[in-house]
From TrEMBL:
<dbReference type="InterPro" id="IPR024311">
    <property type="entry name" value="Lipocalin-like"/>
</dbReference>
<dbReference type="Pfam" id="PF13648">
    <property type="entry name" value="Lipocalin_4"/>
</dbReference>
<protein>
    <recommendedName>
        <fullName>Lipocalin-like domain-containing protein</fullName>
    </recommendedName>
</protein>
<feature type="domain" description="Lipocalin-like">
    <location>
        <begin position="35"/>
        <end position="127"/>
    </location>
</feature>
């Protein structure tokens, strides 16, 4: 039996690493059903590596899909009685699956921008923006004063 030479083994290993990496990447379509709802920023991981933790959030992000790939996001202020004060500003968006990523394209009368959903589950939402800052959200849970 002949053994593979070092160069061939190296190529085979590289091929296996690439194959495993691409096959393990999660399908971004699975993120879509989890986006709807009230999300509270837990932390922001800046491109520099610095982390800003949020202990308290005066505002909550509300995402609403109006169909499979269109929707809006707005900032809401939770009130003690369990209702929300509406900011009246709505950011409409379209989502697109591009190169194995789920991208959100926002459009307002003031600006247009893109963000990419890195993860969306019932317990966490991670979004990266053009500046490479990662926003980590948790589901919003009202504070029970009673």
């Amino acid at each position: 039996m002949k053994f593979l030479n070092f160069k061939t083994m190296k190529r085979l290993l590289l091929f296996l690493v690439i194959l495993i990496t691409y096959s393990c990447k999660e399908n971004p379509e699975k993120f879509i059903p989890h986006l709807n709802g009230y999300w509270e920023i837990e932390k922001v991981i800046l491109a520099s590596g610095d982390v800003h933790d949020y202990k308290y959030n005066p505002l909550v992000d509300y995402f609403k899909l109006t169909d499979s790939l269109k929707g809006f996001r707005k900032k809401l202020k939770p009130l003690p009685d369990g209702t929300f004060e509406d900011s009246k500003d709505t950011e409409e968006f379209n989502m697109k699956i591009e190169q194995d990523s789920l991208n959100i394209y926002y459009k307002t009368k003031f600006s247009n921008w893109k963000e990419t959903i890195l993860l969306a589950s019932e317990n966490q939402l991670k979004i990266i923006n053009a500046n490479k800052n990662i926003y980590v959200y948790k589901p919003y849970k009202p504070i029970n004063i009673n």
